[in-house]
Amino acid sequence: MTVRVDLPGRAYDIEIGPGLIDRAADHLRPHLRRPRVAVVTDAHVAALHWPAFRDALTREGIEAEALVLPPGEATKGWGHLSRTVEWLLERQVERRDLVVALGGGVIGDLAGFAAAILRRGVRFVQVPTTLLAQVDSSVGGKTGINTAHGKNLVGSFHQPVLVLADTGLLGTLSERDFLSGYGEVVKYGLLGDAAFFEWLEANGSSVATRAPGALDRIVRRSCEMKAEIVVRDETEEGDRALLNLGHTFAHALEAATGYSDRLLHGEAVAVGLGLAFDLSARLGLCPQEDPSRVRTHLQAMRMKATLSDVPGDLPGAEELVRLMGQDKKAVGGKLRFVLARGIGRAFVADDVPTGAVLEVLRNG
Ligand SMILES: NC(=O)c1ccc[n+]([C@@H]2O[C@H](COP(=O)([O-])OP(=O)(O)OC[C@H]3O[C@@H](n4cnc5c(N)ncnc54)[C@H](O)[C@@H]3O)[C@@H](O)[C@H]2O)c1
Ligand SMILES: O=C(O)C(=O)C[C@@H](O)[C@H](O)[C@H](O)COP(=O)(O)O
Ligand SMILES: [Zn+2]
């Protein structure tokens, strides 16, 4: 299956399906000016999937060398960005070469940003290996790192030239990482496709058992929706913010939990989705039963769904609102939220009373 991201001058394909890694050379060759690639990955992926990926390239005459970074969100910072850029420069990676991000969203965001700033822009390919990366982070060109001030605060829009989403790789993902990625899948249904959300409600058990047909379907539908929004608004002047449903809450929770294993990004998004619907219901925008419908599905999938599911203590509501102050959607110091008029009907709201946000956080 192929989903096209039809950006003028920078169009690219997202290839989706099992077994793509084995045919990686065929997909990469049209983009290569010389037969070598520089791969950035993490230690888990290096142990599980790098040998097969490397062999698929080298047996077709493409030289491939990898930088192996530590797994986890803490890698997405200045230290490993600098290490990655220096490693690429040591290997004399040129503007016309390809950097390959082989891994989850952490590797994709970091390696994509390294490629964006290396020699003022080197082309890169995303080979997403987590559900989250296949449905979301490998598509659309948001690259970057976290800083002490917050999530993804330094980065660039830099589109890949190709995305190879081998759904066969998802079999080795831990249950927790798989469900974290599923948080972003639910987001798509809630933001713009009620029928897709209904399908998820009805077919959650096939997704949970990672039935190949169900995986291909959720990756394809998510990528179609993301591609369509990104083509409409690449740099988030307007509609792209819809992809941020649940994220104003999620990013504050990730900051409050120190970007650690305590709360993964997709887990924070799942909790944030419930809170975004709470806020929408409190403001009279969506039916009162929608927040519980959202949480019922998350809980049926055995996911974190409420603030009380976050392990350990959280700061109070005022502190969480303060952490939201770094949100990139803010304008003139005023927060903006993605809210919903119902399941599948999200929109960007400018004038959200802080009192309502505080109430939602106190009761969520
Ligand atoms: N750029 C975007 O548009 C965008 C969108 C959504 C999320 N993100 C970012 O993505 C990041 C989260 O991504 P993630 O959830 O993929 O996390 P991740 O990259 O940390 O991967 C999660 C874990 O899975 C392991 N892993 C990866 N592939 C595996 C496989 N096939 N089998 C077994 N283990 C595997 C990794 O080593 C890691 O331990 C966050 O930093 C988030 O901000 C970016
Ligand atoms: O691609 C987008 O646009 C998104 O908002 C997708 C989000 O799932 C993702 O977490 C993104 O990195 C958040 O972006 P940010 O600009 O709010 O940091
Ligand atoms: Zn996200």
From TrEMBL:
Domain 3-dehydroquinate synthase N-terminal as annotated: residue spans: 67-178
Pfam families: DHQ_synthase, DHQS_C
GO BP, one annotated term: amino acid biosynthetic process
UniProt GO MF annotations: 3-dehydroquinate synthase activity; metal ion binding; nucleotide binding
Enzyme class: lyase
Domain 3-dehydroquinate synthase C-terminal: 181-330
Family under the similarity heading: Belongs to the sugar phosphate cyclases superfamily. Dehydroquinate synthase family.
PANTHER family: 3-DEHYDROQUINATE SYNTHASE, 3-DEHYDROQUINATE SYNTHASE, CHLOROPLASTIC
The protein, known as: 3-dehydroquinate synthase
Annotated organism of origin: Rubellimicrobium roseum
